[in-house]
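Issue 218. Parser rejects a valid record. Input:
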Amino acid sequence: MNNNILELLKRMPLFADLSEETLAQIASGTELCELTKDEVLIRQGEVGSSLFIIRSGWVKLITIGLENKELVLNQLGPGQIIGETLLINHAPYSATVIALSPLQVLKLKYDTFLTALQQNPSLAMAFISKLCDRLRFANVYIGKAIEWSHYIAEGNYSPIQNQIQATHNTIVDTGQNDEIRIGAFLSALARMIKGVKRRQETLEQIVLSLGVALSAERNLDRLLERILIEAKSICNADAGTLYLCTDEKYLDFAIMRTDSLNLALGGTTGKTIHFASLPLYDEVTGEPNHRNMATYAALMKRTVSVPDIYDCDEFDFSGAKNFDKEHGYRTVSCVTAPLKNHSDQVIGLLQLINARDPSTNEIIPFDAHNQFVIESLASQAAIALNNQLLVEREQVLAKIERDVQIGRQIQLDFLPKAADMPQPPGWEIAAYFQAAREVAGDFFDVFPIQNKIGLVVADVCDKGVGAALFMSLSRSLIRAFAVQHRPLGWLDNVMTDDRPVAALNIDASKRRKLLSAGTSALLAIELTNNYIANTHGDMNMFATVFFGVLDPVTGRLTYINGGHPPAAIISATGEIKARLPATGPAVGMLPDMAFDIQQAKLEPGDLLFAFSDGVTDARSPDKKFFKEQGVLPLLSQPTDSAAALLARFETSLRAHISTADQFDDITMLAVRRAPST
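Output the parser choked on:
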């Protein structure tokens, strides 16, 4: 960003009330241009994407008038704006601008300035004031044009007559005298002045004041109603509809009013509009839907006016014609204007039907003034509507955030706190948990099962709220099923130090039957698996689970590993004595899956380390995984404390992840048996 430009903007009255941040935003899309005397800044007919603010020097605005004569429309100096009509429509420049002296101008990108304009009411009001000043000058200029009588003095009425006939539909009888000819000319000019004044008054008295009122409205239904009702009133239209664009690329009917039918639907009426939403794109081919007038206006982002829909073959008006037939109505004229937000996205459409002549009440086409009004009002309405939608979205997001925080706290309450975890004499149990998002799919648990300790580390597939819900379900099921069954005494009788499960002369199917018959705590895995698979199978959610039951007296660990990363048993010197691989599939994938029981033993000084794949899958800023190669060196170092081992892992993982986003939940559980004394 050029600091010189920023300082120039600060000194301009138009930007006096803007914040430093907004000025910086505008400055980022601004450049300082210098021109010499007689150099052309812009040319009439060019399509531009910028507007200009004069810093120093003067320019003249010219156009080519009758008989190709150069007409000076205006002279502009420091602080004045050139090309401001780009903000109303994207029509080509209406005049050529030439430097009258050495010139410095600030060239502002249209999109950057429009964004600032829509986000800052004070800037919008200052800018509109500039437009009003220009309109006032135009009124005076047109009045002065009446004095331009050289054509009349020369008796050359043809150019004037042609212009009047072309632009004002005034027929002048060539046989009439000069006074009548002059009267016709003055009458045409008077109508021009009246039209400009009418636009000015509409802009100042109605559209601007309405824009302020719309911005103050906080109820969406009332806001939509007021936009439509005021537009109908200003343009003297009998009917109108306001559409809202959906995220699914449809136009929804939000408000409908037809005065002559006393019909009011949508909004605060509480009456539902039963018309089907209009697809912006063909639902089969995906092509833009240009057949409907409303969808065409939305897709092309421009105002469309039709004098009589029954004489128009360009659009499909079957919906309007069916409405006419059903209600005995006659839709004639129709104008549709898009409501665009600061990002130039169409967020809605304002459509008016059947303009009425104020004197005769006859249905007439919407004229240029009506189109000017509806476009001006659409701009004001779009700002107010977009602000309201943003406010509502922020409120929804704030509520979601509150709900997520509540959910996070509830989820954290499921995890045992360090002070609440059982610590049998001669043992140290420690855990580490760090969610990747606000809510997590990982969990751990440490809980007593009579004279033994249940140890769980699990990882629900996926991330976010869905995984968090299944985490809560899985944790609750495992604990509930585990504590309601008898202890593992039956298993202790058949599993001795010299006869572990793997060495028993019992095949896997018999072991599974033995497990069920004994109704041990480890049956919780089978029950949890079947419940999730049978009840929530269509969700395709499952969890990898390491569930062990520790006998603190003997050090024997009986466990099931349902598809989880293998835990490790490490000696006091850092030797990895055993890995505890999977003994069955992930929990919840399919019902009636087999989960084998295995057994290991922690000798004095040994440490059990269980973890989720968030450890091995941790990513560095250059997308490298931590992997097993990162785990093994940390395990091989002598450790005298379970907490110290977890702290070692935390430090190493934080250094590896560094500035990158945490990819997955990280959960670790360490259980250490004190050395013999």
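Fixed in the parser; the record now loads. The radius of gyration is 39 Å.
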